Amino acid sequence: MKKLLYQFDTDALPSLFDNVVGYDGGADHISAYGGIDARNVGGLVEGAIFTRGIKDKKSTAIFIGGGNMAEGEAVLAAVRKKFFEKFRVSVMFDCNGCNTTACAAVARLAHGRSLAGKRAVVLGGSGPVGQRAAVLLAREGAEVAITGRKLDVVQAACDSIHARFGIVVRAVEAPTNAERGAAVEGAQIVLATGAAGITLLQEKQWQDSATLELVADANASPPAGIEGVGLNDRDLPKHGKILFGSLGFGALKLALHRACISRLFEQNDLLLDAEEIYAIAKTMVD
Ligand SMILES: NC(=O)c1ccc[n+]([C@@H]2O[C@H](COP(=O)([O-])OP(=O)(O)OC[C@H]3O[C@@H](n4cnc5c(N)ncnc54)[C@H](OP(=O)(O)O)[C@@H]3O)[C@@H](O)[C@H]2O)c1
C-alpha cells in the first residue's frame, strides 16, 4: 500500500521545503495543494478518509503548512471536524515549520539545563516559529515576552497563544534595534525568530549584558537575526553567554520533521502539533 501524503498549504504556492522533507520522511507520493482554507478543505479530507479500508488508512496522511498560523489552525479545525469514528487519518501541523523549528530550538536550549524561572524574550515573535517557541519556553518554566513592530500585532499573537494553550505571554512593541535592546535587559534568554535576513539585535547590544545566558537565532538567511551569532553555533561560548545559530539546531529540526512524517504512517489517528512534536524532539536531542 503506497504511503500517500496530502500537503495542505494556506499559501498560494505550497512549500517546496515541506514537500522535500515529506519524501525524505518516507512518503511514497505527495499531493501538494496551495490556497487551502477552512472552507475548501472539506472535500479533500473526505477523499482521504473514505478511500481505504480501516487497516490501510494509516497509509494516508495529511500535512498542514503555510505562513499564516491563524489560517492554518482554522484548516486543522476543519480537517478534524470531518473525522468521525474510524474515518480519520493522521495529521501533522507545521505552518512555516513552526513546530519542528521551535521544538528543535527550545529542546536544544533546554538540553542539560533548566529554563525554569528564567526571563526569555522572543524577538520578532509574532510569526509562526516565534509563537510556538514562546509557548515551549513557557512550558519549560520561563517567563516569556515576545516583541514585534506593532503592539496590536504582537498582542494578537499573545491572545492566540492564550486561546490555544492557556499560557500568558507578554507583548512588547519594539520596532527598532534600540527598543529590542531595551526589551532584552534583565532577560537570561533571547531567541530571535524574525523574518529571514532581518537583523533584530546588534552584537554590542547583548555582548556586555550581565544577565543574558543563552542567545539563539533562528534566522538562516544572512545577515544574522542576532549579530555575532554564527549560523553553526551550537552551545558555543562567547562573551560569557552560550550561543545557538540557526543551523546549530537546524539538523535537529530536519531530523525531527522527517521523524514526524514517518510516524504519521504508523497509525491512522495521530495528531502531531506542538505538544506531541516537542515530546518527540526531547527524545532526539543529544
Ligand atoms: N533554523 C531552521 O531550521 C528554520 C526553519 C524554519 C524557519 N526558520 C527561520 O525562522 C524565522 C522565523 O520564521 P517565521 O516563519 O515565524 O517568520 P516570519 O513569519 O516570516 O516573520 C516573523 C516576524 O518577523 C517580523 N518581521 C517581518 N519583517 C520585519 C522587519 N522588516 N523588521 C523587523 N521585524 C520584521 C514580523 O513581526 P511583526 O510584524 O510583529 O514585527 C513577523 O511576524 C525566519 O527567519 C525563518 O527563516 C529557521
Which structural traits does this protein have?
alpha/beta; Rossmann fold; 2 domains; 286 residues; binds NADP nicotinamide-adenine-dinucleotide phosphate; five-stranded parallel beta sheet; seven-stranded mixed beta sheet
Describe the protein in words.
This protein has 2 domains: 4-97 and 252-284, Rossmann fold (3-Layer(aba) Sandwich); 101-249, NAD(P)-binding Rossmann-like Domain (Rossmann fold, 3-Layer(aba) Sandwich), CATH 3.40.50.720. A 7-stranded mixed sheet has the order 7-6-5-8-9-11-10, with helices on both faces. The model has no long low-confidence stretch (mean pLDDT 97). The chain is of the alpha/beta class and 286 residues long. Strand 1 (4-9), helix 1 and strand 2 (29-33) form a beta-alpha-beta unit. The chain has helices at residues 16-24, 42-50, 69-82, 98-110, 128-139, 151-165, 177-183, 203-206, 246-264, 274-284; strands at residues 4-9, 29-33, 60-65, 90-93, 119-123, 143-148, 170-173, 189-192, 214-217, 234-238, 241-244, 271-272. Bound molecules: NADP nicotinamide-adenine-dinucleotide phosphate. NADP nicotinamide-adenine-dinucleotide phosphate (NAP) is lined by residues 96-97, 101, 124, 126-130, 148-149, 153-154, 193-196, 198, 218-221, 246, 250, 253.
